[in-house]
Amino acid sequence: MYLSQYSDEPTSPSTTTFSKNSQLTPPPLLPCSPPFHLAYYTPTNADGRQIPGDSAVEAAYDVFLKQFPQYRLTWILDTLRRTDYTRLSRNSSQHEVETYVDYMGGSLYPESLIRVHTEFLANNVLGNTHSISASSQLSLKHAEEARRAVLEFFDAPPSSDLDNDSDEYTVIFTPNASGALKLVGEAYPFSKNSTFILSTDSHNSVNGIREFARRGGASVVYVPAGGQKGKEGAFDLKEGKRILRRNQPPQGTSSLLALTGLSNITNAKCPAFSIVTYARSLGYHTLLDAAALAPTSRISLAHLPVDALAVSFYKMFGFPTGVGALVIRKGFLRQLKRGRPWFAGGTVDVVQVPGKVRTMKGVGEEFEGFEDGTINYLLLPAITSGLHLLSAYLPFLPLRLNCLLRYLVTELGRIQHRDREGRLINKFREGETEGEVCRVLSRVPKKVLKTVGETDEEAGAVISCIFLDEAGETLPLAFIAHSAAHEGISLRTGCMCNPGGAAALLGIQESMKDRRGMLHSANVSQRASEEQRGRTELGLVRISLGLGSDWSDIWRILQWAKRIGDSVERKKMWQRWLGQQAEPVDEWEEVEGGAIRRRGVISCVPCKGEEDATCVRRISLVEEAWDTTIGRAI
């Protein structure tokens, strides 16, 4: 619920925000005092039972509130969790509750958003937009509403405030943020005098643009991401400006700077305003990957005048998947239009067949020349509803997530390895933290937010960490992922499609740059890359918070981490994990006179025979020559 400035009565987002006839912009929000039961909220199941029916939970929550009393100001998100995320608390066949902490991978949709959109589809006839029929025109109407909603959400300056329409923004709907970034990369006029500049702490969808740059003869230059304590993944502003100056595009040449608004692994925010303003003054085009930033941060294109911005809506409010957007200046879009490498249905007016003549669409609306095929007209109305919902709750999110993340980092740092009698186990090397179970490597928010509407300009709501055994050795990511899944915890392991950010956190940037340490084959595998660097795994464990997160999620994460630190409990987890493993490889290659079979064999080697030690999982690759005429190895 939220309050309109026009009334003292609380209104429900599900009725006000999602009404089919509602205004595109929801009423402004005003903070108000929460009802009594929400001011003293404790996590409950769908039937109202406290989780898990233990006074220890209530005591822990009271301690949390004493440390972060400002958390109470975000009570409106407790209401949302209770009404729109009931599925997390329903008893399932495996888990009493689900703990979802992978919001960076995809947000969870509010249930009211699905109900309203389902009702909308059931009561309306929508058709392909390439027609003048009533169903087609209804689809077009809602597509235009969605475009306007996107522009309003990102505070794009209206045309009346601009000197010419080249600075006006338009919206191109894409399958996702990756598709939006690809649209820019494939059509950008890279040349031998061009430069493509990006941070090493970038998603692979940004890294992938370098393929188009190199194909056009342009140079590719990376701005290093910090790996030292306190500057994890940080965009080095001083070095970035130096690189921009050194590679300033000559007159008549186009160069592109791609920025990551928020890293999906290091949790570092980019100093976007400073770097964008400087880059534009030197003649660069600017592209912002806002996929990780937009779900929890307000972005104003009136304040941050990038040439293009890419987002995925499922990361913002969970539904629908398969729809993203490129918000782009019309003047920049016209430059890209000349470089589009192909055309498709919906993007052209005239095509000569056979022949070479083709006329691209976009005389009236430039976006038409970039939306390949038919737009996702059945789901675009949900974009408008989702943006309205997120607009209502976005002012409260930074404060809430700042409290939860800071508390989680502090409490994880207090968990230590214990034996079956509860005594501290310490086999760590000198200089390491005594008995630590979890080591957080990503950026931790320094700023303590105190009020609704306040934001942190340096960090988001992501923790990237590693889990350690009693000797300080990193526990396998596959074990952590299996253990979490077994307890109903949804998190992510690996490099999160951000190898540069992962390398910065793991301290292996130099080996990433070392050509002698990197295989050049186009078929290089992750396993081979790991072996080249002398590491068993190149990745981390990621916990990310978002729209539906509350304190109960943090509490369950901490209980799970404590069990990893308990030697008896972890041994049970380990044996359960090993019992789930199958032989990872069983491949056949036909050769003259028979075949070669390659299969993986798993063996478990106990650590020096110690009673409570965790065994080491080893995988060996065995090659066997087979005589296919007799059906056995020879």
UniProtKB/TrEMBL annotation:
Residues 1-23 have a biased composition (Polar residues). The keyword Oxidoreductase does not apply. GO terms for molecular function: molybdenum cofactor sulfurtransferase activity. InterPro entries: Aminotrans_V_dom, PyrdxlP-dep_Trfase, PyrdxlP-dep_Trfase_major, PyrdxlP-dep_Trfase_small. It comes from the Eukaryota. Pfam families: Aminotran_5 (PF00266). One of its GO terms (biological process) is molybdopterin cofactor metabolic process. SUPFAM superfamilies: PLP-dependent transferases. Keywords: Transferase. The keyword Transferase applies. Residues 1-27 are annotated as: Disordered. Residues 100-390 form the Aminotransferase class V domain. This is Pyridoxal phosphate-dependent transferase. The lineage of its organism: Eukaryota, Fungi, Dikarya, Basidiomycota, Agaricomycotina.
